[in-house]
C-alpha cells in the first residue's frame, strides 16, 4: 500500500531524511523507531503530502503523493505529532468537519462520526470544546479524526503520547486490531509498544534507516539474546568458575549477589545458543545447586536500539 | 462540484469560528459604533443638509484599515500556531480550496457587518430623498474595498504564526494603498514628479478606485482593480504556503 523509494529531505544543508526506502503492505503494522530528531516526523509529513520531498518518490495505494495528492490523501488517515485540533470547536463539530472534507454526507457522516467516537471513547466529551480537553482526550480526538473515513492506510505520529497506561493499552489494541486489514505506520518512543503491536520495525537514526526487521529479528541482534539467566545459592566465585566451563559459554557475568543468592548471566558463544540452557541446567543438577530461577533471554529491544543509535549520538555530541 | 463542497465546508467552519468566540460580537459592535461616530459626528452628517451617505462612505478606507486586518490576521497564523495546518493540508483538498474557503468566510462576515449598517439608509431615506442607486454603488464599492484589504490580511497572515506581526504588516500594506491616492499625498507628489508618475502611483490606490463608487459610478476598471488586488493577494498566499511547506 505504501511504497517509499530513496526518500530524501534537506532543510538547507541538513539532511533530515537521507535516502530512505521501505514499503508497507496491507495487514502490516510498521513501527517507526528512532531518537528525537531522527527524521521520523519529517518522513511521515512527506508520506502524508504535507511537505514535498527533496528527492525520491512516495506512492500510496498506487498514487504518487506528489503528482496525484488528492486520491493518495483520500486513502490515508493521519494523526500528526502533538495531535492538533481547532481549539474553539466541539469534539463533535470537529469530527463532523473532518468527515465533511472526507466527502461523507448525511447518514454516512453521522455513522462515521459515531463509529470514531465509539472507537476512541469520546462519548463523555462530545460537546466540549477542544481547548478544554485533557491531553489524553485531545489526543484521542485527533486519532478519531484520522480513523473517521475508515482509511486503508494509517499514518500515526506517536499515537500513544500523553495517554495513561489504560488508554495506551486500548490504543495499542486498536492499532493491532485495525492492522489486520490496513497498512499502518506509527512512530513511538516506547519500545515495549513496538513489541506488542508491530509486525515490522524500522529504526531510523539521523535520517537513515539503520535497522529493518521483525521485532524478534531485531531482538536477536541484542547482546543478551540467547543468554541464560539464572539465580542460585552458593558462593559467586565457585558459580562463576564452574559456569565459565560450560560448553558453549562465551562469558559469565555476575549480576548481583545477596542473601537470596547469586544472579548470573551466561553469554553464549556464537554457535552454541540452542543448547546452552540445557547445559547450564545439567551443570546445576550435577553440582547440586539450589536453583531458584533459570531462563533463556530473548534479547531486549532497548539494548539493540541503544547499540544501533548511541554511537552516532555520541559522535554528534563530540 | 466537489471543489465547491470542500470550499463550503471550510467556509462553514471558519464562520462558525467567528461566532463561537467573542471576536464576531466585539467586532460587530465596534464596527457599528465607529461607523456611527464617523458618519454623524466627524462627518457632520446632519450639518451637511444633504440626503446622501457621502459622510458614511468617505471614512470606510480608514475604518477598514484597522478593522479588516483584525478579522483577517488569524486566518492562517492561527492554523500554524495550533498545528492544524498540517491536518488541513493532509486532507483530500487543494490549498486553493482552503484559501478561497477561508477568504469567502471572512468576506461574508464583513458583508454581514456592512449589512448591519442598514439604519443609516433608513435614516437618510426618512430625512430626505437620496439617490438609492448611489447608495447601493457605495455599498458595492465598500464591500470590494473590504475584500481587497481582507485578501492582503490573508496574505500577511500566511507569512507568520504571530497574529500581531500579521496585523501590523497588513495595516502597513493597506495604508500604502490608501496613501498612494490620498489627495494630500498626490498633491505633494506632483510638486516633485511628473504628473504621469503621480497618476500611475495613484492608480494603485484604493482611494482612486473607491471614489467612483461613492459617486454612484460602477466603472468596470474599478471593479477589475479590486478583483485583481484580491486575486493577486490570494495567489501570493498560495505561493507563501507552498514555499513554507517546501522548507
Given the helix and strand composition of chain A, which structural class is it? alpha/beta
In DSSP terms (H or I, runs of 4 or more residues), the helix count of chain A works out at 11
Largest binding interface between chains: A-B, 33 and 25 residues
- Strand runs of chain B, count: 0
Characterization of this structure:
- The complex is a heterodimer of chains A (318) and B (247).
- Chain A is of the alpha/beta class and 318 residues long.
- Helix content of chain A is 38%, strand content 29%.
- Chain A contains eleven helices and 14 strands.
- In chain A, the strands form three sheets. A six-stranded mixed sheet of chain A has the order 6-7-8-3-9-10, with helices on both faces.
- In chain A, α4 crosses α5.
- Chain A is elongated, with a radius of gyration of 24 Å.
- The mean pLDDT of chain A is 87.
- Chain B has one domain.
- The model of chain B has no long low-confidence stretch (mean pLDDT 91).
- Chain B is mainly α.
- The two termini of chain B are 32 Å apart.
- In chain B, α8 crosses α15.
Keywords:
heterodimer, A: 318 residues, alpha/beta, Rossmann fold, Alpha-Beta Plaits, 2 domains, six-stranded mixed β-sheet, four-stranded antiparallel β-sheet, 11 helices, B: mainly alpha
Short description:
By secondary structure, chain A is α/β, with parallel strands linked by helices. In chain A, 38% of the residues lie in helices and 29% in strands. Chain A has helices at residues 40-47, 69-75, 91-101, 106-119, 135-147, 165-178, 191-197, 215-220, 236-244, 273-287, 301-317, and strands at residues 2-11, 14-24, 29-33, 55-60, 63-64, 76-79, 153-157, 183-187, 200-205, 208-213, 228-233, 249-258, 261-268, 290-296.
Amino acid at each position: 500500500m505504501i511504497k517509499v523509494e530513496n526518500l530524501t529531505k534537506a532543510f538547507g544543508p541538513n539532511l533530515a531524511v537521507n535516502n530512505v526506502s521501505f514499503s508497507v503492505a496491507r495487514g502490516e503494522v510498521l513501527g517507526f523507531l528512532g531518537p528525537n530528531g531522527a527524521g521520523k516526523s519529517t518522513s511521515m509529513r512527506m508520506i502524508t503530502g504535507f511537505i514535498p520531498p527533496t528527492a525520491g518518490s512516495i506512492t500510496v495505494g498506487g498514487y504518487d503523493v506528489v503528482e496525484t495528492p488528492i486520491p493518495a490523501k483520500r486513502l490515508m488517515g493521519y494523526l500528526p505529532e502533538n495531535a492538533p485540533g481547532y481549539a474553539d470547536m466541539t469534539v463533535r463539530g470537529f469530527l463532523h468537519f473532518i468527515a465533511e472534507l472526507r466527502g461523507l454526507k448525511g447518514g454516512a457522516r453521522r455513522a462515521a462520526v459515531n463509529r470514531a467516537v465509539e472507537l476512541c471513547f469520546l462519548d463523555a466529551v462530545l460537546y466540549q470544546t477542544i481547548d478544554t480537553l485533557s491531553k489524553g482526550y485531545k489526543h484521542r480526538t485527533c486519532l478519531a479524526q484520522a480513523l473517521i473515513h475508515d482509511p486503508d492506510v494509517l499514518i500515526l505520529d506517536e499515537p500513544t503520547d500523553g495517554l495513561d497506561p489504560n488508554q495506551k493499552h486500548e490504543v495499542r489494541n486498536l492499532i493491532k486490531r485495525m492492522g489486520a486489514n490496513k497498512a499502518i505506520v506509527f512512530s513511538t518512543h516506547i519500545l515495549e509498544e513496538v513489541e506488542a503491536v508491530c509486525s515490522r520495525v524500522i529504526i531510523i537514526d539521523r535520517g537513515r534507516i539503520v535497522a529493518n526487521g521483525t521485532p524478534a529479528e531485531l531482538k536477536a541482534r541484542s547482546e543478551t539474546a540467547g543468554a541464560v539467566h539464572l539465580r542460585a545459592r552458593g558462593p559467586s566465585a565457585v558459580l562463576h568458575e564452574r559456569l565459565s566451563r560450560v560448553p558453549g559459554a562465551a562469558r559469565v557475568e555476575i549480576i548481583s549477589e545477596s542473601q537470596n543468592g547469586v544472579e548470573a548471566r551466561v553469554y553464549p558463544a556464537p554457535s552454541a545458543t540452542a543448547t546452552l540452557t540445557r547445559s547450564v541446567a545439567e551443570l546445576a543438577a550435577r553440582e547440586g545447586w539450589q536453583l531458584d530461577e533459570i531462563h533463556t533471554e530473548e534479547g531486549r529491544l532497548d539494548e539493540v536500539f541503544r547499540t544501533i543509535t548511541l554511537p552516532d549520538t555520541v559522535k554528534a555530541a563530540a | 462540484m466537489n471543489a465547491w463542497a470542500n470550499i463550503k465546508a471550510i467556509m462553514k467552519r471558519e464562520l462558525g469560528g467567528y461566532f463561537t468566540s467573542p471576536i464576531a460580537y466585539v467586532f460587530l459592535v465596534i464596527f457599528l459604533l465607529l461607523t456611527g461616530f464617523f458618519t454623524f459626528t466627524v462627518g457632520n452628517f446632519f450639518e451637511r443638509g444633504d440626503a446622501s451617505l457621502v459622510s458614511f462612505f468617505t471614512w470606510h478606507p480608514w475604518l477598514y484599515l484597522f478593522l479588516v486586518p483584525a478579522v483577517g490576521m488569524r486566518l492562517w497564523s492561527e492554523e500554524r500556531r495550533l498545528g492544524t495546518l498540517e491536518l488541513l493540508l493532509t486532507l483530500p483538498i487543494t490549498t486553493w480550496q482552503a484559501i478561497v474557503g477561508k477568504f469567502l468566510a471572512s468576506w461574508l462576515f464583513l458583508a454581514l457587518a456592512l449589512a448591519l449598517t442598514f439604519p443609516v439608509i433608513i435614516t437618510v431615506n426618512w430625512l430626505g430623498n437620496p439617490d438609492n442607486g448611489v447608495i447601493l454603488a457605495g455599498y458595492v464599492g465598500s464591500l470590494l474595498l473590504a475584500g481587497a484589504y481582507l485578501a492582503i490580511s490573508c496574505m500577511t497572515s500566511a507569512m507568520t504564526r504571530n497574529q500581531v506581526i500579521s496585523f501590523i504588516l497588513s495595516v502597513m500594506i493597506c495604508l500604502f494603498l490608501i496613501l498612494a491616492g490620498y489627495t494630500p499625498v498626490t498633491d505633494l507628489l506632483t510638486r516633485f514628479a511628473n504628473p504621469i508618475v503621480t497618476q500611475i502611483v495613484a492608480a494603485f490606490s484604493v482611494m482612486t478606485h473607491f471614489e467612483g463608487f461613492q459617486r454612484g459610478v460602477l466603472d468596470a476598471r474599478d471593479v477589475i482593480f479590486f478583483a485583481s488586488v484580491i486575486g493577486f493577494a490570494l495567489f501570493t498566499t498560495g505561493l507563501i504556503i507552498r514555499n513554507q511547506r517546501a522548507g
